[in-house]
Give the backbone structure.
Amino acid sequence: MITPPRRQGEYADREIDCQEAMEPGFQAILDCMIEAGWTRGEIVRALRRLIAADNMTQKENAKVEAQLAIARAMMRSGRP
């Protein structure tokens, strides 16, 4: 089970708490990947690429959501 944040909202050690909550799962993935034959360097590079791809996806999704919001507002106002 993943440990939830100690409380809702921002607090000083929230990112550290998140890292600690992620640690067991991360170690399990790392161990499985190494056992499957991947090197630590390959795993780290792949994780960096996955994070970069996720960041790009989040940015693109935000752009699309903004464009949809503008289109909806224009439709409600009767403007094409």
Summary: Residues 8 and 59 are 25 Å apart (CA to CA). The chain has a mean pLDDT of 94. Residues 40-77 form the longest helix (38 residues). The chain is about 75% helix and 0% strand.
